[in-house]
Give the backbone structure.
Amino acid sequence: MRILKFIAMQVSASNWKELCRVPAASFLQAILVMSVFLPCTLAEDKQDHGVIENSVGMRMVMIPPGKFDMGAPVTEVGSRIDEQPVHTVEITTPFYLGVYEVTQAAYEKVVGVNPSYFSRTGAGQLKVEKLDAARLPVEQVSWDDCMAFCEKLSALPEEKAAGRVYRLPTEAEWQYSCRAGSTGPFSTGASLGGNDANFNGNFPYGDAPRGVFLGRTSTVGSYKPNTFGLYDMHGNVAELTADRYGRHYYKDSPSADPKGPEAGNDRVVLGGSWGTDAARCRSAFRRSNATSGKAYYFGFRVACDVAVAAAAGN
Ligand SMILES: [Ca+2]
């Protein structure tokens, strides 16, 4: 069945005619060859490097525990008071994190609506008319919308059966994942240019040359991933996290698995977006947003605890 499904996916309506001209023997030969190699390829693709794929096609990668220096020193160009002091933080347990920002396709499958500005029917449709909008990140979502998405996704029968409970990553989990072992301003090093991420390329960072300004979101995974295999941590849509925002929180943050201040109305948003300069896409850059606030440059990615997924045999 898997082979037939794969063949059906590869053969579009436009090339059925061509296929019908292929002699039956050759066609059967091709099926036999694919039946040997294809199952291995698909199995490896789904499990390689700790990546899993859930029932709505979202890919999640396992992030290992570890220590990192959170925040940015005063000497880092663009560093702000709320990124200081730099302090060592330990992420004590592994977790899964979305390889991509949540796409419009995934959001619509789970919630039933697509609020995105840069979508097939959104106000910014002309900007993305030549793109497959399903693979663009969802935006115009509030923190409350993200929580509702996680709740609905976790309640899907297949996800419940797999024991996967979704949530937003904490700010520390997000920055740790964004850095992926790097210590400078970006996971790409000391500079960020138009070939590295989707941001306003008129304002690159470090010695990177000026690049394009798309003025819109881009297909998730269009730029190189970091060493954890995560795409678009810098730019595209800025990402909402679980934590409340505290301007001076880093001064007395716990060193293990910090979860943000206990009180406050605003939440932390990270990574910059298609509309910001490169400095606001730095690993340490943080900003706040009201839980009900929406914008066409805000999106999110989801986390899932490994212990929960592992207990269900994943
Ligand atoms: Ca992003």
Summary: The pocket of calcium ion is lined by residues 101, 232-233, 235-237, 239, 271 (CB under 6 Å).
